[in-house]
Design a protein that fits this description.
Keywords: ATP-binding, Nucleotide-binding. It comes from Roseivirga seohaensis. One of its GO terms (molecular function) is ATP binding. InterPro entries: Fic/DOC_N, Fido, Fido-like_dom_sf, Fido_containing, SoFic-like. Strands 1-3-2 form a three-stranded antiparallel beta sheet. It is globular and about 65 Å long. The longest helix is centred in the C-terminal third of the chain and has 40 residues. It has two domains: about 250 residues, Fido-like domain (Fic-like fold); about 90 residues, Arc Repressor Mutant, subunit A (Orthogonal Bundle). The protein has about 375 residues and is mainly alpha-helical. Helix 8 crosses helix 12. About 40% of the residues are buried. The chain has 16 helices and three strands. A hairpin with an 8-residue loop joins strand 2 and strand 3.
Length: about 375
């Protein structure tokens, strides 16, 4: 099988009329979601669990098994079965890479260099960390089932010189204003996967770029528009639609699939964000009324940033003095704001869970 030759961007073969029904709706929903984001006083606090859930689901597409609860429990206690530890670190790295991308974009625009740095963070100390993290591949690779070779591979990405040329073209296209920004995003995501510039981690890197591109284009105020929930639930359609581009050269089904993903996911994101905002206001009153503490807001914010935690995590995250931590946590358990997830024994700490938030994120 010969290495694939990607089309140059912007695409000249697109039939824009095929997407009119979905373009308007997708743009409206994203704008509505962004309007809601602008009303969130501290998105870093309120939407932290959604970022972790995105990392869990994007990594799951690549075969990891760790759940949101397992990742949060590990962060609370740093204990997990050996077979899960690698999966958990992949999820944590995903979150780190996404945050690093956002932070670097505050100083300079999205670029191939910033993508290489994110990739290095993504692959740090996990599966694939021996595959040249942070560098574009220098050898030909291919995608196929275990035991297959380049002759019977499912897909052979571009050769190195073609890959480099396609990457520079792709980077240039990021900074172009195409006719519709969401169609442009669909093309950017697919073209990145087709170019397959790294030896490992291309799928996750491509999905990290979805919210970052919308942030780069100032379509959303914070890079928190995540699609992995939809892509994981429709994994075979996701791969089939991408494969159709390289099999037949037709982008229509892929772009329609992607715009539909944006519509469905935006609706879900809007619902979850509203529920989180409402929970925040409800629990603010519950904590103030039950604890009468001057630390009630610090306490509240800490629950949203880390909804599964030990008293040690809680003290560190909230900056509440140790002398007040035990009383506060006991009061919150008594008033059913928190549950005890694991009772402490010996040197092992008690692990607390803020279930109402976890239920929203998991739904």
């Amino acid at each position: 099988m010969k290495p694939y030759q990607p089309e140059e961007l912007p695409l000249k073969t697109i039939e824009w009329g095929q997407f009119i029904d979905l373009m308007g709706k997708a743009n409206r929903y994203v704008a509505r979601y962004d309007g809601l984001l602008q009303s969130v006083i501290n998105p870093d606090v309120l939407l932290a669990p959604l970022r972790t859930q995105e990392a869990v689901l994007s990594s799951k597409i690549e075969g990891t098994q760790a759940t949101l609860e397992e990742v949060l429990e590990f962060e609370a206690d740093e204990k997990a079965s050996d077979h899960l530890k690698g999966d958990i670190w992949e999820v944590i790295n995903y979150r780190v890479a996404l945050k690093q991308g956002r932070d670097s974009m505050k100083e300079r625009p999205l670029s191939l260099n910033s993508i290489k740095r994110m990739h290095e963070a993504l692959m740090q100390g996990v599966r694939g960390d021996s595959k040249d993290p942070g560098n574009f591949r220098r050898i030909q690779n291919y995608i196929g089932s275990p035991g297959s070779n380049i002759e019977n591979a499912r897909f052979v990405p571009p050769s190195i010189p073609v890959m480099l040329e396609a990457l520079y073209n792709w980077e240039k296209y990021i900074h172009v204003d195409d006719k519709d920004v969401l169609v442009q995003l669909a093309i950017i995501h697919a073209q990145f996967e087709i170019i397959h510039p790294f030896l490992d981690g291309n799928g996750r890197m491509g999905r990290i770029l979805i919210p970052l591109f919308l942030y780069h284009k100032e379509i959303i105020q914070e890079p928190v528009f995540y699609l992995s929930d939809y892509l994981e639930s429709n994994r075979s359609d996701y791969y089939d639609a991408l494969k159709e581009i390289t099999d037949s050269g037709s982008w229509t089904n892929w772009i329609r699939f992607f715009l539909n993903a944006i519509i469905v996911q935006a609706e879900k994101n809007i619902r979850k964000t509203r529920e989180i905002i409402s929970l925040y206001e409800t629990v603010k009153l519950e904590i103030a009324n039950s604890t009468h503490s001057q630390f009630s807001i610090q306490c509240l914010d800490s629950l949203f940033v880390q909804p599964i935690f030990s008293s040690r995590n809680f003290e560190k995250n909230s900056q509440i003095p140790r002398s007040s931590v035990a009383r506060l946590l006991n009061t919150l358990v008594e008033n059913k704001v928190l549950d005890i997830a694991q009772k402490g024994a010996g040197r092992r700490p008690t692990i607390y869970a803020f279930r109402r938030l976890l239920n929203i994120v998991n739904n």
